[in-house]
Write a structure and sequence with these properties.
Helices cover 6% and strands 44% of the residues. It has one helix and nine strands, in the order H-E-E-E-E-E-E-E-E-E. The chain has a domain of 72 residues: Immunoglobulin-like, CATH 2.60.40. It is elongated. The protein is mainly beta. Belongs to the small heat shock protein (HSP20) family. It holds the Pfam family HSP20.
Amino acid sequence: MNRTNPFDEIEQFLGRTAFGGDRAWGRDLRTTDIDVAEYDDEFVVMADLPGYDREEIDVRATDGRLTITAERDAEREAAESGDADRRYLRRERRHESTTRSVDLPGLVVGEDASATYRHGVLTVTLPKAADEADDGHRIDVA
């Protein structure tokens, strides 16, 4: 008698794959890997977003939190092109999206933030804001 694991059936029902990916009603639910680095005067957040176009990526810094959202529709046809009267033999469409938010470790100047996207990696640079408890800048007297 071949017994199955009931948890495998539950995961299959919920749409999870054996390799840790999630699928729900034809929509891929994915997260993106990020790195957060702190330098003397800025925070830098790097996010892996392979296969997206710049126009499909939205980056927002609000209330000490950075949110990165990317969405795309992918479409693939199995039949070869050439005949204008042909009907679809197979055509697959899917919607992919990812959203990742991270609390920033300090105050930033959102207006001076910048983002670049190269080779599937989004890099967001957020200049640090001056501390409110800052006693000012000491000026040497000559």
